[in-house]
């Protein structure tokens, strides 16, 4: 399923806004799969029977951190999901949280502050998607007014993302005048994962986006164009973040192209 993708005026912290909406009168079961992309996010969801990851029901309003393990969300019937995809450094800068504590998990924003609890109520009572998006954007703008972004980490993450994860992390660390250990600790606290893992995630995300766009003839083309030393290296990296091989993913994408569910990549 393809989300509606929008941009935000708060583009220092918000990569994009996307909206997934399905009006399902048949009350069928849905499965939505998400993979690592190097970003965190603020999400609001409305469903008839809740959204679950395994046996855990998700909050209607949540902040999620870096995703390393593949995620499968399940729900039944109609649903709406509004996600503000945040740049890697945004969780720490906007909310003052240790980003590594949110890796592969999420925070119920109704418990973050009295304001965020009120925001959840306002979003839920809003009469349109446009109004809901506006409430969330205003909330993030208020958080940004007192944000304290580390420009050095912001620059590092942007550089790694722009190079699709192919630039040597060691070379970046040497420009910081920090020891390798200090750099890794600071990066993980503000981004959620160590710099080498972040770089690996970005390279994976670049490769899977290339596959989704169909801009290749052979899978080996994807491997070499994304800086993998060989195809076996690419396959190992791909399985680490999806639990399946690139060829299996390719086959599933074809079979799910006409479905409302499936793999979600933004």
Describe the structure.
With 266 residues, the protein is α+β, with helices and mostly antiparallel strands. Helix 2 runs antiparallel to helix 3 (129-144). Helix content is 42%, strand content 20%. It has helices spanning 90-95, 114-125, 129-144, 151-162, 169-174, 180-191, 195-213, 219-225, 231-242, 246-256, and strands at residues 4-6, 14-22, 29-34, 40-47, 52-53, 56-57, 61-64, 71-76, 79-86, 106-108, 262-264. Strand 5 and strand 6 form a beta hairpin. It has a 6-stranded antiparallel sheet. The chain has a 3-stranded mixed sheet with strand order 8-3-11. It has a two-stranded antiparallel ribbon with strand order 5-6. The model is unreliable at 258-263 (pLDDT under 50). The chain has 2 domains: 4-144, Jelly Rolls (Sandwich); 151-259, Arc Repressor Mutant, subunit A (Orthogonal Bundle), CATH 1.10.10. The chain contains 10 helices and 11 strands.
Give a nutshell description of this structure.
By secondary structure, the protein is an alpha+beta fold. 42% of the residues lie in helices and 20% in strands. The protein has helices at residues 90-95, 114-125, 129-144, 151-162, 169-174, 180-191, 195-213, 219-225, 231-242, 246-256; strands at residues 4-6, 14-22, 29-34, 40-47, 52-53, 56-57, 61-64, 71-76, 79-86, 106-108, 262-264.
